[in-house]
Amino acid sequence: MLRILQFLYRLRAFLLFILLEVIAIWMVVTNNSPQGAAFFNSSNAVIGSVLKKQADLVQFFSLAEANESLTEENAEIRSKLTFLTYPADSMYLPLDSALEVTYEFRGARVIANSLRFAQNYLTLNKGKKHGVKPGMGVFNPDGVVGRVKSVSENYSVAFSLLNTGLLISAKIKSTNDLVSVQWDGKNSLEANLLYVPRHILTQPGDTVITSGFNAVFPEGIPIGIIKEVNPDNDNPNYLKIRITLSTDFSKVSYVYLVENTQFEELDSLYQQSEISNEY
Amino acid sequence: MNIRSLISYVLSLLALLLIQIFFLKNLALFGQAFAFLYLLGILLLPISLAPIPLLLIAFGMGFVIDVFYETIGIHMAAATLLAFFRPLWLKVISPTGGYDDLQAPTLGEMGLGWFLSYAFPLIFIFSMAFFGIDQWGFGSFFSILTKSLFSSIFTCLLAILVQLLFFKRRRGI
Hints:
Chain A is α+β, with helices and mostly antiparallel strands. Helices cover 28% and strands 29% of the residues of chain A. Chain A is built from five helices and twelve strands. In chain A, a hairpin with a 2-residue loop joins strand 3 and strand 4. Chain A is globular and about 95 Å long. Chain B is mostly helical. Helices cover 67% and strands 2% of the residues of chain B. Chain B is built from seven helices and two strands; from the N terminus they run αββαααααα. Chain B has helices at residues 3-22, 39-43, 51-69, 74-92, 107-110, 112-134, 141-166, and strands at residues 28-29, 33-34. In chain B, strands 1-2 form a two-stranded antiparallel sheet. In chain B, a hairpin with a 3-residue loop joins strand 1 and strand 2 (33-34). Chain B starts with a helix and ends in a 7-residue tail after the last helix. Classes of the chains: A alpha+beta, B mainly alpha.
């Protein structure tokens, strides 16, 4: 018995090493699974406030650019608004409640962002207090940015679209074909389209937008533009399509959060009918 | 180790962590070469330091970097691996006559050639572990290898520069 204890004591550094590695790997695994609760991340109050100070300083220099894009977006929204105001002698019919808008929008600022790793995350300066919930979609005027992963009181962490674990339901605008967008971990400007059957007629230059089917994003938010279409050598039933992302992830500073207010109803319906709705 | 050198070690570790978090976080030359300068803090700890405190220091530093990088676990695993290999590698490359008791493996004390042969393989092991875990199941082995190679070269260069600029020199290089 003493021998064994002595033996273990001599191996103590190695055993500690194994223990620490197991803890670290366990943390990697729990952090990367979408359902797993993350105990430590940058939505922590202390870390969030440090990151926010840093972002305050850095983003001060890009304020002019942010202003410009906001003005452009305002102008666009104003021009759409003119079609929505009723002329004086018009009649107004309330539509059926089934056609009601079910999305709510909120604004947030990105205080930390990465794009060089295979699993990238964004930290946002809005949290539970401001009504942010896990699962909300994140986008900016250019296109889709990601999806909220976990929320603390004042901050939240979101999967970036540049995260190999995130699939986004999309469609090709010109043909209405349903596809999925996934990043391959390499170039922060490009991503892949998955599950595109061979019969689909598409060509470089076609726009890819959100489908509105996964109840996270409303329909029609841009994701990217098709760059090249090739037959998939590994799987002859599918096409291999690369898209150029419409969002410049190195410049994301202000984003919108979108929540589907009927998400819970939809989700419980899916569960009742035993359809797994992978978001 | 006296109290004064202890304080200077703690301060330099803190400074390296802050530099890593505030300045080097989003730095990647050509999207390939990352700077892991905070590893210098682990590399420069005294040679006589026992393996257990070394492992714990590396684990702690990895944790702090991880929460800011939003890469929980990856820096911790890789830095602990580096700390595990450090005493073994120091034994392999020990000069004839062994090390002095209170020696620290710095550039100024040991010379450029020795420092490179000490730091480069260890940083390379760290980078391989880091990018291996980061790109698990996605990246090809080749992309992991190139990223690790360029990152270790870049980190070594930065480590040498930092020591030339901010460390007292004992003898000429």
